[in-house]
User: What shape does this take?
Amino acid sequence: MSHSFHRQLVYTIKDRCRVCFTCVRECPVKAIKIINGQAEVINDRCIGCGNCVRVCSQGAKIPLWSVDAVNELLKSKSRIAACIAPSFPAEFAEIQDYKLLVGMIRKLGFDYVTEVSFGADIVAREYETMIKSSDYEGDISSDCPAIVYFIRHYHPDMVPYLAPIASPMVAMTRVMKKKHGDDLKVVFIGPCFAKKAETTEVDEVLTFRELREMFDIGNIRPENTDPSDFDPPHSGKGAIFPISHGLYYTANNHEAIPEERVIIAEGQANYKEAIKEFEEGYIRKKHLMLLCCEGCIMGPGTSPAGKRFARSNAVGEYVTKKLQNIDREAWDRDIAEYSKLDFSQSFTPEDRRLAPPGNEEVLHALQLMGKFSPKDHLNCGACGYDTCVDHASAIVNGLAETEMCLPFAIEKLHDSISNLNVSNEKLARAKAALKQSEKLAHMGQLSAGIAHELNNPLGVITMYSNILMDEAPEGDLVREDLKLIVEQAERCKKIVSGLLNFARKNQVNLVETDVVKFMQHSLNSIIKPDNISFSFESTIADPVAKLDIDQMMQVLTNLEKNAIEAMPDGGNLRVSVEGDADEVTFIVADTGSGIHKENMDKLFTPFFTTKEMGKGTGLGLALIYGIVKMHKGKIHVESNTELSQGPTGTTFRIIVPRGR
Ligand code: ADP
Ligand code: MG
Assistant: This one.
């Protein structure tokens, strides 16, 4: 009989998976795939060992649930037998008398309740015959379904060594069908959920945990149950099967299998090593008794937090009592009757090994995790793989993700944090700039209002003082006074027009301009003190932009004048033009005193000046601000006043769109 079906045994509840990779680490065959940080069991690769279910602290791995299917069976007209695994005393230690447990199972609606250990008795004899045969070449026990899947999927060349003998569960099923007819339905109840995928010969498989659920749902308790004994055939020493040397002792009941013929290996590390050594020929003509768990008594279908030695003790005590009361004659009769059945089992290889990925691909995957040389391979195991190379290979095979690498993730986190800091700073600056421009907008409104109101009275003052001045005789003292009034009124008008500029009340008249020539021209129109050297530079390929030349000229000359005024003891004024396809940048840089930090956000406020009375109006930069805004441009200022931090000076950058 061949095994070629494999039910999905483990399901993932995605919301619960918290990316700890413990299941990846504990999966002996790397049947767990991480996609978008979520662990998913790949059924094709799974051997049903249940490790992932056992180790997931979040309960994100859920084993196949069979209670509903069993309830359906129980509702049907078929006769149904419950065959309970010999490890039951380990699970139900709190039920003092096993007969109560049998009664409780009957209450669920089963027609027969038997012990699988009779199947173990039979199977032990089959093993003994095989091991003692003259052409015996060694074998691997085939009673643990997870081990069987492990061999079929990952050591397919070893399949011929799998003992061609049915498991105690299957053997018991055949016995029960022989006894009660082929239409009998069989439900196995045990500590293991790999059993759910072992064979189609058994109709359903329940774990002990599921059995407890059924008791709970039906409110079936020892206190409300009548004791009842197992149905025949009754077992002998097979009951000891689930504790470590189980099979060996069971066989010994009949006639000894020499101890040196048997190698026992339990648990992931041990069985893998044993199979490897067997495959490599270090172990010959031996019976390899392999179990995926640490004895069936600790199987994933048992209640969690069970104590291993207490459980083993419970099984031992049960068997001792059982053997004291055994009806030896009946047992011999049953063995004689049923051992005539066929207990053979055949297995087919189903290779699920992944082809090793190419070196280059692995190297590339390593590089994506920032691992460029062997010293970058920390092999920390945080990803669930033993080595960085294993992890990289899994990435290439589509089983793992780069982000699973903890050192890589930490580095990325650091990067994100510093990026975040940079963005934060940018945000803070943008916020400050926004505040500043809001303030300026308010001032703009105010200034525009004042300027508008002052314009008319100023006009009247200018006009009438001019008239009076014309009428006053030459040399008259009053004429001199009137001249002063006219001059000061003119000055007021200038200030008012400066305010109007700032308030953006003027329109721009954009014309195509050669910005290089334009900037050079701006330099020519200012007075150059002797103690200052001037330089001009242009790196722009295409010098054409649309500007309001009158207003933009004011911008440049004001910047240049400020620069010169900041260098009373001489220095260097560098003027340059840069640009790209969209924008041109006018740069005015001086080596002057610099601007103090606390003044930086006041620069563009009308009337802000640090110059002495009469020297500065504080309207230059306000005007520049208004004009540049009208050009939809930006102003950048960099300045240093501290010699300790490098040469002092200020650089203004006026960036305006080309306007095309
Ligand atoms: P004003 O030149 O009339 O003072 P501005 O609006 O042109 O008014 O400039 C405002 C203030 O900005 C100046 O008083 C000065 O403190 C500062 N400032 C402007 N440009 C420079 C510069 N190149 N170097 C140092 N300080 C400057
Ligand atoms: Mg100025």
